[in-house]
Design goal:
globular; 49% helix
Length: 74
């Protein structure tokens, strides 16, 4: 059985795409900075650790600012 389960993660994040994006960014940050937010992790890999942070509520998805216009959107 996978930990954390996809069902528990979907309760914290609105879409699978957002979940993948959040976890990958946090995994990269952990790898580069060696910054850990939980005292103990079940997973050995950075992506698993990032997903554990989402499951515990330590890592949350911030809403995007709808007023921001990027260069490629003009």
């Amino acid at each position: 059985m996978l930990y954390p389960s996809v069902d528990s993660l979907k309760k914290k994040v609105d879409s699978k795409y957002s979940l993948v994006s959040i976890a990958s960014k946090r995994a990269r940050q952990m790898q580069e900075e060696k910054s850990m937010r939980l005292p103990k992790y079940v997973s050995d890999k950075y992506v698993g650790k990032a997903l554990e942070e989402v499951a515990t509520g330590v890592l949350i998805n911030e809403a995007a600012d709808q007023n921001v216009v990027y260069e490629d959107e003009v």
